[in-house]
């Protein structure tokens, strides 16, 4: 999506020329010594197939190397394969060693590959997955010039080899948004101008790109717009304006989107995604691009939040609730046309946990993975994690991909001040605020004027030349760019602003420079236009620390990022071809290590059985270090996850950070060493191994740690010393889990925060109970769900005082607030409950006293019982034996229940559960029941709100309901 507030002229970014098809030399990431590069032949491998691992070696040691090149492959901590091959490599010689490995038959597993040759080392990873959407590593392509197939292939090959990219978004490849492939007389044209009219797209290059992607077992996903068409859409494409959306009820003003300062040729006109005519038309376009080009699915975009518009007939379009229907109808359309294997994803623009249209799409749309472009709704690290967490809860643990543009609002890199450059025909001034340095250049508008900078390129590579300027002339102006005395291009996007005090840095061009000193001249030639003020030239460069910290935060939270494309380009702008910022070699090396890491450890990071623990601070302690669960600056950010077989602890080093906005440049963390760490675990967990892996350590290889176990006042723990923490460490603990008898989890055995354990009141189960709850105190239970089910959380408690409340959190997410009425004495035990949905696997249940909660309780245990939910809008008639039945209603009262013709009648009070849904904010459960039982029930409503069952006063529902137990 191209964001409106950045559009004016940003698509004059359209004036960025297509860079020459140079695939830079490789950076030696994940390798040292004579091992220069290690990579796999394909992005992923199907189970039971032959994988190729290539090792490039060059002997620059001064002596002949004679010995073995050794390969080992691990799945997590377990070695699964080893082999070696001997080589004799004279000084100055190079060779490539190819290893082949038959991948295991188990699907969806990641493997770490370690290479040694003497003291030299290298590493890569192998993804064994039959479908790329399980663990997407999404890249992008933006250029479709006339070029040879081999040059095209090299762009794809390098991205796959270096970053394990298993799918590419082909950005802005099409002719028009509503008419994707240009034809003449029914035959596809060899080329066409893109939607902006400023770039030529070559059909053979598009075909070659898709072919290369498929050759490397990567998918080709075409960028498309859900509901947009270009100018003259009716005459050119036959699109009916009656399908459109309007800002008025009389269909006089069609809803549109202005890219380029009111240029009608680039306006996008918007259509109703719920309109059947539009759907039928655009679905046909999608099927055509799949059939004709060989794409592997559809990447759907949209333009983000806007007020509900009108359709052609003046009806309000509920736009934010329209997209799931569009996606679902598209899925059905593809399925019915033999395209059920094609992938769908949809851009939840401006993604946030409570973002516009987010719940509709992530909960209701039948797509393959969540994709969301981040703007202002998730600025901080913790907001990113909350977004990822909610997306996974909503979509059933499907993969999440973020479009997150690093350093987007900053002019990062080495800066050269214009007033300190060589000047001709211009002056310097300070009469407009906001400049950098000691002033700026003005009077820059007569033919022959120029500003020439002397710059230093620290290494060979691409450099973004970013000019910070002011312009209040009323016109968009141009300048001619020279590098080392040679004309490069006319830079055309010095855009008119609202005042001379408004400084912009969106005028740039990217060039290839050798290491060393260069001159960069910006000149006003005869064919250039207008005056500008020039403040500085910046060698646009991504900030290493912020990129690495954000990459750690996203991956540790369980998502990936669309980030790498075109060989070695990092995405830093919503207009994907913008290359104003570049990576230096240090960041390229770190990024390749990062992608090796997230591929090798994909099962601990992204598997569907990986769930959060509670989000508080109760699980991790590090001696002498500040630890926070909220991602705040100045702390080690810790959070914990669990899978069926592992506890996973993520530590991200924010100690040097001063800003938790992930986009912004940051300070390189100081490496911490010998961290004495204690991790608290559930009572049913038994740890058999503790390991650490990090993209910052040993090229990502797992290291085994010595550990001890014990119990203190907080609960059961595992203790170990962490060797180091630079950016991100992942500690994973192999463990088994023993489910307690009858799924009863004793409170005194949980992880406790500021509460006590006592035995001074009779009637408890286990060895005691928890007391002394105060504000910000609680207990966390680690529980196991045998299958996907609704579960009743039944808390056994005593309350000898006034009525109390507590908040309940499941896997760190608020689940409800439940009441704990007085039981009359501290030896009188009762049960309060809350029904939640749990996926199969290990989860944490936290009961917490927040400042808003009231009263005191003693907590004995948690009983986890599977249940079926009855609601007035979902009236069950049968349930399986062994399940409870939960009644969810919208008012206080009693469930009047009996069995087999109203025998054994009981009355159970429905209590508030904290739900925001007015018709489901009270509940109670009954059961479980044996097969053959008929459960009879009705409701008695406490309309007078006195909390006293008065069968002759309170209102009976008037209908008897029955459920048969099978």
Could you explain how this protein is built, in words?
This protein is mainly beta and 966 residues long. Strands 47, 52, 55, 57, 58, 59, 60, 61, 62, 63, 64 and 65 form a twelve-stranded mixed beta sheet that branches. Helix 1 (149-163) packs parallel to helix 2, helix 7 (381-395) packs parallel to helix 8 (544-557) and helix 8 (544-557) runs parallel beside helix 9. The two termini are 52 Å apart.
Per-chain topology:
Blueprint: E1 35-40, E2 50-58, E3 65-75, E4 78-89, E5 94-102, E6 109-117, E7 120-128, E8 138-141, H1 149-163, E9 167-170, E10 183-184, E11 187-188, E12 191-193, E13 200-202, H2 203-215, E14 219-225, E15 228-229, H3 233-237, E16 256-257, E17 268-270, H4 276-293, E18 297-301, H5 323-336, E19 343-347, H6 358-364, E20 369-373, H7 381-395, E21 400-403, E22 413-417, E23 422-424, E24 427-429, E25 440-444, E26 450-457, E27 461-470, E28 477-483, E29 486-494, E30 504-513, E31 516-523, E32 532-540, H8 544-557, E33 560-561, E34 564-565, E35 569-570, H9 585-600, H10 602-605, E36 611-612, E37 620-622, E38 627-628, E39 636-642, E40 646-653, E41 672-681, E42 685-693, E43 703-705, E44 707-712, E45 715-725, E46 728-737, E47 744-746, E48 751-753, E49 756-758, E50 769-771, E51 777-785, E52 789-798, E53 804-810, E54 813-820, E55 829-838, E56 841-849, E57 858-871, E58 878-879, E59 884-889, E60 893-899, E61 903-912, E62 922-926, E63 934-941, E64 955-956, E65 961-965
Parallel strand pairs: 8-9, 9-14, 14-18, 18-19, 19-20, 20-21, 21-33, 38-39, 57-59, 58-65
Antiparallel strand pairs: 1-2, 2-5, 3-4, 3-6, 6-7, 10-11, 12-13, 15-17, 16-17, 22-32, 23-26, 24-25, 25-32, 26-31, 27-30, 27-32, 28-29, 28-31, 34-35, 36-39, 37-41, 39-40, 40-46, 41-45, 42-43, 42-46, 44-45, 47-57, 48-51, 49-50, 51-56, 52-55, 52-57, 53-54, 53-56, 59-62, 60-61, 60-63, 61-62, 63-64, ...
Helix pairs in contact: 1-2, 5-6, 6-7, 7-8, 8-9
């Amino acid at each position: 999506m191209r964001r409106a507030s950045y559009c004016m002229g940003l698509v004059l970014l359209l004036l960025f020329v297509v860079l020459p098809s140079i695939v830079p030399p490789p950076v030696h990431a994940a390798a040292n010594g004579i091992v220069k590069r290690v990579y796999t032949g394909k992005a992923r491998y199907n189970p039971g197939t032959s994988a190729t691992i290539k090792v490039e070696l060059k002997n620059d040691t001064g002596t002949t190397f004679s010995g073995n090149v050794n390969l080992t492959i691990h799945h997590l901590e377990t070695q699964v394969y080893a082999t070696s091959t001997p080589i004799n490599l004279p000084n100055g010689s190079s060779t490539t060693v190819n290893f082949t490995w038959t991948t295991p038959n188990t699907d969806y597993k990641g493997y770490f590959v370690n290479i040694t040759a003497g003291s030299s080392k290298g590493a890569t990873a192998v993804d064994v997955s039959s479908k790329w959407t399980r663990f997407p590593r999404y890249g992008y392509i933006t250029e479709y010039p006339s070029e040879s197939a081999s040059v095209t292939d090299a762009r794809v090959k390098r991205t796959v080899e270096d970053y394990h990219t298993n799918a590419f978004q082909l950005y802005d490849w099409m002719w028009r948004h509503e008419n994707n492939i240009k034809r003449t007389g029914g035959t596809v044209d060899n080329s066409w101008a893109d939607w902006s009219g400023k770039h030529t797209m070559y059909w053979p290059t598009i075909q070659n790109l898709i072919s290369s992607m498929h050759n490397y077992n990567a998918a080709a996903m075409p960028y498309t717009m859900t509901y947009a068409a270009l100018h003259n859409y009716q005459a050119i494409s036959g699109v009916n304006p009656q399908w459109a959306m309007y800002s008025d009820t009389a269909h006089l003003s069609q809803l549109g989107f202005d890219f380029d300062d009111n240029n009608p040729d680039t306006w996008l006109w918007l259509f109703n995604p719920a309109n059947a005519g539009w759907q039928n038309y655009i679905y046909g376009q999608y099927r055509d691009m799949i059939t004709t080009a060989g794409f592997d699915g559809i990447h759907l975009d949209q333009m983000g939040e806007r007020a509900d518009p009108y359709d052609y007939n003046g009806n309000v379009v509920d736009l934010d609730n329209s997209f799931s229907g569009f996606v679902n109808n598209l899925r059905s359309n593809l399925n019915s046309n033999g395209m059920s294997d094609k992938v769908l994803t949809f851009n939840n623009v401006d993604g946030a946990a409570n973002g516009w249209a987010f719940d509709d799409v992530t909960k209701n749309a039948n797509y393959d993975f969540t994709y969301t472009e981040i703007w202002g709704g998730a600025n901080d690290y913790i907001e990113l994690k909350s977004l990822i967490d909610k997306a996974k809860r909503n979509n059933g643990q499907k993969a999440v991909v973020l479009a997150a543009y690093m350093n987007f609002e900053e002019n990062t890199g080495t800066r050269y001040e214009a007033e300190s450059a060589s000047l001709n025909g211009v002056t310097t001034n300070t009469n407009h605020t906001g400049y950098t340095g000691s002033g700026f250049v003005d009077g820059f508008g007569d033919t022959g004027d120029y500003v020439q900078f002397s710059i230093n390129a620290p290494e060979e590579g691409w450099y973004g030349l970013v000019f910070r300027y002011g312009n209040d002339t009323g016109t968009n102006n141009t300048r001619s760019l020279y590098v080392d005395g040679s004309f490069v291009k006319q830079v055309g996007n010095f855009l008119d602003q609202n005042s001379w005090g408004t400084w912009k840095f969106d005028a740039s061009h990217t060039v290839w420079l050798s290491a060393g000193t260069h001159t960069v001249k910006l000149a006003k030639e005869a064919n250039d236009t207008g005056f500008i003020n020039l403040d500085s030239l910046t060698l646009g460069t991504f900030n290493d620390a912020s990129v690495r910290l954000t990459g750690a935060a996203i991956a540790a939270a369980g998502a990936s990022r669309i980030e790498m494309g075109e060989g070695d380009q990092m995405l830093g702008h919503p207009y994907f071809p913008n290359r104003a910022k570049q990576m230096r070699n240090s960041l390229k090396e770190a990024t390749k290590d990062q992608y090796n890491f997230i591929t090798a450890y994909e099962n601990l990071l992204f598997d569907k059985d990986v769930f959060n623990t509670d989000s508080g601070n109760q699980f991790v302690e590090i001696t002498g270090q500040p630890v926070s669960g909220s991602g705040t600056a100045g702390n080690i950010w810790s959070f914990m996850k669990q899978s069926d077989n592992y506890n996973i602890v993520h530590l991200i080093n924010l100690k040097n950070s001063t800003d938790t906005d992930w986009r912004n440049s940051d300070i390189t963390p100081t490496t911490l060493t010998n961290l004495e760490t204690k991790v608290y675990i559930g009572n049913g967990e038994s740890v058999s191994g503790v390991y650490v892996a990090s993209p910052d350590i040993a090229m990502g290889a797992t290291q085994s740690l010595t550990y001890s176990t014990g119990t203190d006042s907080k609960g059961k723990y595992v203790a170990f010393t962490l060797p180091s923490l630079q950016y991100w460490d992942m500690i994973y603990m192999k463990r088994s889990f023993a489910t307690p008898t009858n799924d009863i989890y004793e409170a005194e055995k949980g992880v406790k925060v500021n509460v006590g354990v006592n035995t001074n009141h009779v009637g408890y189960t286990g060895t005691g109970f928890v007391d002394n709850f105060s504000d910000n105190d609680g207990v966390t239970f680690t529980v196991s769900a045998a299958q996907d089910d609704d579960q009743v959380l039944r808390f056994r408690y005593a309350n000898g005082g006034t009525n109390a409340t507590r908040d309940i959190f499941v896997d760190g997410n608020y689940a409800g607030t439940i009441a704990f009425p007085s039981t009359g004495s501290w030896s009188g035990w009762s049960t309060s409950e809350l029904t939640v949905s749990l996926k199969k696997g290990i989860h944490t249940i936290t009961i917490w006293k927040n400042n808003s909660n009231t009263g005191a309780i003693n907590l004995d245990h948690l009983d986890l019982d599977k249940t079926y939910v009855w609601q007035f809008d979902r009236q069950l008639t049968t349930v399986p034996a062994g399940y409870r039945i939960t009644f969810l209603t919208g008012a206080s009262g009693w469930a009047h229940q009996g069995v087999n013709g109203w025998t054994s009648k009981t009355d159970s009070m429905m209590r508030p559960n904290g739900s925001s849904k007015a018709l489901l904010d009270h509940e109670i459960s009954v059961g479980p029941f044996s097969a053959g039982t008929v459960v009879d029930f009705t409701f008695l409503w406490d309309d007078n709100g006195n909390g006293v069952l008065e069968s002759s006063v309170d209102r009976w529902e008037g209908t008897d309901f029955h459920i048969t137990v099978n």
